[in-house]
Amino acid sequence: MTGEGPVPEYRIYVEDREVVTPGELLAEGQVIASDGTYREGDKVYSKVTGLASIEGRKVRVIPLSGPYVPTKGDYVIGIVQEVKFSSWLLDIRAPTPGVLHVSEFVDEEVDLITTDLSEYLREGDVVGALVQEVDPVKRVKLTTKGEAMNPLGRLKDGRIVEIDPVKVPRVIGRRGSMVRMLKDVLGCDIFVGINGRIFIRAREEPREIREDLAVRAIVEIERRSHLSGLTDWLESTLKRLSRW
Questions:
Q1: What is the CA 78 to chain-centroid distance, rounded?
Q2: For domain 10-63, is the CATH number 3.40.630.20?
Q3: Between residues 7 and 238, the one the model is more confident about
Q4: pLDDT given for residue 242 in this prediction
Q5: Cα angle vertex 31, ends 35, 226, to 5°?
Q6: Whose CA is closest to 188, among 154, 213, 156?
Q7: b/e map of 92-101 (b: 16 or more CB within 10 Å)?
Q8: Considering only CA atoms, which of 68, 72, 57 is closest in space to residue 27?
Q9: How far is CA 235 from CA 15, 41, 104, 180, 182, in A?
Q10: Residue 36 near residue 30, CB atoms below 8 Å
Q11: Where are the beta strands (DSSP E) in the chain?
Q12: Residues 28/7, Cβ–Cβ less than 8 Å
């Protein structure tokens, strides 16, 4: 009898929300190695620079930066890059443009011989869309038809801010808490694309000031995304800044 207790089934070496680097030992034993990690034997290491996320025995790493990789069903905010004969090419912050065919935007039948598609969308227009398909060679097809939490189609009379796509969950917040607070306090409609492009439109005056505050708040959320207590900080900051 040595008097020692039972050997633990697993051991975690980092704190939740701690910044970790590639190759750093995160845990060992009977843990669930999730996104952003890899296992060697019974040890789990980080694949990327990011934030450790610990949920019981589940260990994952949330990257601090990274490109947008389109996935079917994503809500994205695109900017018309080029008007083609039967479609538009949209910049969706992916390696290749998204293709929005006229049939996925317009309900009525369009005579492509006599119709210039610039009558519907022109270069520079902002569009909320869904990723309909990503083919084997990574071409992205878009649609503005279907159901989404945010509006589909042309988005007008607002401002755009872009953030790193991997920071989008922090801007949205748990169960939408962060973006809901921004909307309520600042009186703005805020549509968040999973591609890191965010559309802001004030619902009331002073519109320019409200939209500017929303942009500043979102940029600051992105900058502070690795810190804890972000919701409390945002609430107090918004109350201080939004004294109309």
A1: 13
A2: no
A3: 238
A4: 66
A5: 45
A6: 213
A7: bbbeebbbbe
A8: 57
A9: 25, 44, 40, 11, 9
A10: no
A11: 10-12, 19-20, 25-29, 32-33, 37-40, 43-46, 50-55, 58-63, 75-83, 87-91, 98-101, 126-134, 140-143, 153-155, 159-162, 188-192, 197-202
A12: no
d(CA 69, CA 96): 10
Strand pairing of 140-143 and 98-101? parallel
C-alpha angle 116/128/231, rounded to 5°?
160
Q: Per-residue pLDDT tens for 91-130?
A: 999 999 999 999 999 999 999 999 999 999 999 999 999 9
Peptide linkage before 206 cis (omega within 30 of 0): yes
Give CA 125 to chain center in angstroms: 20
CATH code of the region 75-155: 2.40.50.140
Topology adopted by domain 159-241 = Ribosomal Protein S8; Chain: A, domain 1 (3.30.1370)
Record the tokens describing residue 178, joined without a space.
Answer: 């962060």
By the 10 Å C-beta count (0-12 exposed, 13-18 middle, 19+ buried), 17 is classed as middle
Q: Where are the alpha helices (DSSP H) in the chain?
A: 168-172, 177-186, 207-223, 230-241
* Strand pairing report for 50-55 and 19-20: antiparallel
Q: Where in the chain is the domain with CATH 3.30.1370.10?
A: 159-241
pLDDT tens digits along 162-172: 999 988 988 99
Burial of 126 (0-12, 13-18, 19+ CB in 10 A): buried
Backbone angles phi and psi of 234, in degrees to 5: -65, -45
